[in-house]
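During the reporting period the student researcher (J.K.) took over the structure-prediction task from the postdoctoral fellow and processed the backlog of single-chain submissions. One of the processed entries is reproduced below for the supervisory committee.
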Amino acid sequence: MNTNIVWHQNNVSHAERRHLLGQKPMVVWFTGLSGSGKSTIAAEVERRLINAGYAAYLLDGDNVRHGLNNNLGFDEKDRTENIRRIYETAKLFSDSGMIVLVSAISPLRKMRGDARNCIGGDFVEIYVEADLQTCIARDPKGLYKRALNGEIKNFTGINAPYEIPENPEIILDTVNYPLDYSVDLVYNYILNTQIDYNKLFEILLPAAIKAGEAIMDIYNRGFSVEYKDDKSPLTEADKASNAIICEELQKHFPYYSVLTEESADDISRLRERYCFIVDPLDGTKEFIKRNGEFTVNIALVFDGEPILGIIYVPCTDTLYYARKNGGAYKNGVKIHVSDRTDDLILVESRSHGDSRGAELVEKNKSRIADIISAGSSLKGCLIAEGEADVYYRFGYTMEWDTAAMQCICEEAGAIFMQGDDTPMFYNRRNSLNEKGFYILNRIENKLHGTP
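J.K. obtained the following structure tokens:
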């Protein structure tokens, strides 16, 4: 490199770019023999990402040789330079905030190692595995036939080597599995890497516990009760918990929006793909009654869908949590709904009874073996851990009442739907859940005669 060249630092940070696009930039590098399925899989993954609202771009090795690399041949020196130009380009795209998909044979381990070293921690290597005979049989571009006839020199697998990756992040077997299966694997892998769930839980689980400790301090020493405009109760504990959680969110996740019951609603949250939804004290009525059935609820939603949920029960020091495609847990132990389809256990609200609920129970009493009551989001937790099977809520709730509970229930295998059988989405302009909702351990346990 010329020593007279000095790097000019941009004025826009990586964090700002990530916030602008609402995604984590990365380079997903597909390597494998010609005909293994690299480009087909990468192109479909790109399409799915775009359809899901992500900014993604595919750099295909053949396409790049039509322009940027059209002056390069296929000896080892030129192939090495071909890969270098591709990974340097991918790095620039990634630096701009894009998810970059690269489909290139990149036959030598050193080539791929250089790409990883250049791009850094946001590099994912995918080995698209197909044996030479299968690729020859496929030969979608007719290149193997020409190489075997001596018309193409330095053709990978025929008269040039291919070094199988030693430790790729993903191996796709395109001989024994359909391409759609490989597309699903890669697409879901990318989605899971878009959120640093480890960091989220490292921050949010202690925050929920800290908020719960503040609640218990007030719970044990006495408190006064105020009433908001909608006649719902408000205590010092609600405010203290809210202050603790909001401080942690602002400190660690300043680019995410927040919707919380006890803070003024900043409607600019509607522009954001990520939004924390918080109920700092779910079950204030139970708190006032001193029955212990109140919780701290924290959820993160992406494009309206809950992808993380935390429910902390201060009185019993019980922690429920879940993340999208990661399962649901209670105090570190994985939980799952029951498999009951008869002798169902129905859970009802301790403080929000409704005549429609009683009517529904009467119509389905032959299927119901027991009815238990619980406060706050504990009702959903009971279903998630298999202690109950069915819960119907009529009338309104708010987004912060259900977001964390929905994530935990769904990751435990439950069905969570609005009362009109449509999905529940979040970070809406109107935060009122007007249609009611139901939670089922199994879809066949939907009760008949719903009002």
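The committee noted the following: The domain at 197-445 is CATH 3.30.540.10 (Fructose-1,6-Bisphosphatase; Chain A, domain 1).
J.K. will present the remaining backlog at the next meeting.
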